């Protein structure tokens, strides 16, 4: 049912058009935002999956080639086309044609090569990039029970579990195939093979292949055997120790990883979403078989690293908020158009519109506070040891082509007990730090840490302990430092701050990279606040997260040390604490005075009248209004000056716009009182005894708050 013909119907029609346009544009922007984020996500994940498939195919091709080469030698030996006295020449010819082969050898059973020679095992292996011939039987007795690969190798053809080769002095993936010499060449009687042909694929080569995948800054890949034993993993100790994916899943009580191990060892392929309760990271894992060896390749891509345009998303969300408010205002005006002459209806519409603007302001604040859950800009968050190693592998590969000293990685931990702000740009931090040095590898590395942002006269450090633990020397310090960190207060009081404790090593001449010792923390999920004292409190702030990160920083100087690693993008370790300002405290101390001033101004506006009887009753006159608004102005001005003094901001802060709006409101109320007292009839000020300015007060005030909020945060 439409309003009656006339102005009410015209208002209804215009409001209906505004509402339809507002909601339609909001729906369109929402679709665009969701679609673009989904397309970006899908494209990124598709690329990761494509890289995983390509890597699996490449690895499968390499391994199949190696098994074919071993089969060729075994076949030629069995047919008599390769005399035993020409084996060494054949091995040398093979590595000349296939330099990618790490090692290849022929191992005979005892006395199978010659009646007077117990063992014979020529083996050509790559050392320092050059192939050289050696005899395995000169290094160790490969027929002893501990050398399972030989016993299996003379029984059936297969790829063996990775192991450390004593002859090659390297981690190897080994394929062995048995051979039986023709009758005229056999030395031993009876059944069974005469030996085995073994060919090596260096684990380093597998690490290089999977490490070259572009999986984001901390994403990684790993390869496991059909027994779930790790062949390649960024944490190389997993491979050296012969650990399996089952071991890791059981250690972490992770049913998803357990299920992945079962699927991978069954040679299946697929995709699973995984959430690590220990680190808080969400990831997508692609896995598929390497058919040549019955191994499996898995790729872990962290969804936090999807290259979403956060700024564009935020802008679209704010735009959606704007058009939704416009559409909702249209609906309110449509309802009010049915009773335009009713004061209760008009006041209800006025308050409803003002409330809409406040909801819009709060929504933008919530979006801004979501910054507390985002990774630090120009940095890599470190919550997973495999991700740390994956990132450092890339750095070390780059560093190999630079004239730097070899990288010395020092595990480092931090435990913060207290933080106190001394000034808007300085904070005092108290706590403990420790480092773990490997002996004897780090014997020539100086022990110590320092904070480059600390104020020297207010930086105290005291060694607390130093002891040996296995092959490591652990050194710990107590510290109390005043750290200078320029802060941006342009959005105060809607603040999200990340306090960064930059940690350096004093041995500047060495390429020392500090690595977070994540294993020292029971939980490393950033929201579980690793490295922070239980019950930590910082007045006026809520601690949201704590985490280690590598900060990308080019110092643009070698700091006086030629060929210093700090000339390029050096991985500088930082310990970060993300703080969100307690908005309740900010409201009480800063915004409530403005709100009280607004109520007083509205009260003065509400009693503005041309009715002399009511004016005498209220004690209203223009002079008293001007005197009252002047008093309010000076009170607000003093509060404004106090805010500027406390935060020493170089730019206009978000809160200051509220002061500016209040100043303008004071002037507007004073002007309204003057215009109401004039004798000339004015339809705007005099209509129904100043009704229009009264109705517009809260919508315009809150609308101004909303406009400046959009301006600051868009």
TrEMBL record:
Keywords: Membrane, Transmembrane, Transmembrane helix. Gene3D superfamilies: PAS domain. It comes from the Bacteria. The chain crosses the membrane at residues 12-32, 318-340, 346-366, 587-607, 619-641, 653-675, 695-713. It holds the Pfam family MCP-like_PDC_1. This is Cache domain-containing protein. It comes from Billgrantia campisalis.
């Amino acid at each position: 049912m439409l309003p009656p013909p006339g102005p009410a119907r015209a208002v209804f029609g215009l409001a209906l058009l505004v509402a339809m346009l507002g909601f339609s544009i909001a729906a369109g922007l929402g679709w665009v935002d969701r679609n673009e984020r989904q397309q970006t996500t899908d494209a990124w994940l598709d690329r990761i999956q494509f890289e995983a498939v390509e890597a699996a195919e490449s690895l499968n091709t390499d391994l199949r080639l190696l098994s074919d080469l071993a089969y060729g030698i075994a076949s030629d030996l069995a047919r008599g086309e390769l005399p035993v006295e020409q084996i060494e020449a054949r091995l040398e010819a093979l590595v000349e044609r296939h330099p990618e082969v790490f090692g290849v050898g022929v191992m005979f059973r005892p006395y199978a090569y010659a009646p007077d020679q117990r063992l014979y095992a020529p083996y050509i292996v790559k050392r320092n990039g050059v192939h050289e011939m050696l005899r395995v039987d000169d290094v160790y007795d490969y027929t002893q029970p501990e050398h399972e690969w030989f016993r299996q190798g003379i029984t059936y053809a297969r790829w063996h579990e990775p192991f450390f080769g004593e002859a090659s002095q390297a981690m190897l993936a080994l394929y062995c195939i048995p051979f039986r010499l023709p009758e005229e060449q056999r030395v031993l009687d009876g059944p069974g093979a005469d030996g085995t042909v073994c060919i090596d694929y260096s684990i380093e080569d597998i690490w290089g292949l999977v490490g070259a995948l572009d999986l984001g800054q901390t994403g990684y890949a790993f390869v496991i055997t059909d027994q779930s034993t790790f062949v390649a993993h960024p944490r190389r100790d997993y491979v050296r120790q012969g650990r399996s994916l089952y071991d890791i899943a059981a250690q972490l009580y992770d049913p998803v990883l357990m299920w992945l191990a079962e699927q991978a060892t069954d040679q299946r392929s697929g995709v699973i979403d995984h959430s690590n309760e220990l680190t808080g990271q969400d990831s997508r894992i692609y896995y598929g078989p390497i058919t040549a060896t019955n191994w499996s390749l898995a790729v872990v891509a962290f969804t936090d690293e999807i290259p979403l345009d956060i700024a564009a998303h935020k802008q679209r969300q704010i735009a959606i908020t704007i058009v939704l408010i416009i559409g909702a205002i249209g609906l309110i005006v449509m309802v009010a158009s049915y009773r335009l002459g009713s004061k209760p209806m008009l006041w209800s519409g006025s308050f409803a519109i003002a409330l809409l603007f406040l909801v819009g302001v709060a929504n933008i604040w919530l979006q801004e506070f979501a910054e507390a859950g985002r990774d630090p800009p120009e940095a890599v968050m470190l919550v997973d040891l495999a991700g740390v190693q994956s990132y450092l592998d890339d750095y070390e590969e780059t560093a190999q082509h630079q004239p730097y000293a070899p990288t010395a990685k020092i595990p480092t931990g931090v435990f913060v007990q207290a933080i106190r702000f001394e000034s808007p740009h300085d904070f005092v931090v108290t706590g403990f730090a420790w480092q773990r040095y490997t002996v004897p590898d780090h014997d020539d590395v100086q022990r110590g840490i320092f904070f480059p942002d600390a104020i020297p006269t207010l930086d105290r450090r005291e060694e607390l302990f130093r002891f040996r633990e296995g092959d490591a020397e652990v050194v710990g310090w107590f510290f109390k430092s005043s750290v200078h960190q320029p802060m941006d207060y342009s959005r105060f009081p809607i603040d999200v701050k990340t306090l960064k404790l930059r940690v350096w090593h004093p041995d500047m001449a060495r390429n020392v990279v500090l690595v977070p010792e994540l294993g020292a923390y029971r939980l490393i999920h950033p929201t579980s606040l690793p490295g922070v004292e239980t019950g930590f409190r910082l007045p006026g702030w809520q601690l949201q997260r704590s985490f280690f990160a590598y900060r990308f920083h080019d110092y643009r100087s070698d700091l006086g040390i030629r060929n210093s690693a700090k000339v390029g993008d050096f991985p500088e370790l930082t310990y970060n604490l993300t703080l969100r300002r307690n908005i309740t405290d900010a409201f009480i101390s800063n915004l409530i005075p403005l709100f009280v001033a607004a109520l007083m101004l509205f009260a003065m506006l509400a009693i503005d009248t041309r009715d002399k009887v009511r004016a005498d009753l209220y004690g209203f006159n223009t002079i008293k209004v001007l005197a009252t608004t002047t008093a309010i102005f000076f009170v607000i001005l003093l509060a404004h000056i106090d805010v500027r003094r406390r935060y020493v901001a170089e730019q206009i802060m978000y809160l200051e716009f509220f002061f500016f709006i209040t100043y303008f409101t004071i002037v507007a109320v004073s002007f309204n009182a003057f215009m109401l007292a004039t004798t000339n009839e004015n339809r705007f000020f005099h209509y129904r005894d100043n009704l229009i300015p009264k109705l517009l007060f809260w919508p315009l005030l809150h609308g101004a708050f909303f406009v400046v909020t959009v301006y600051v945060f868009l």
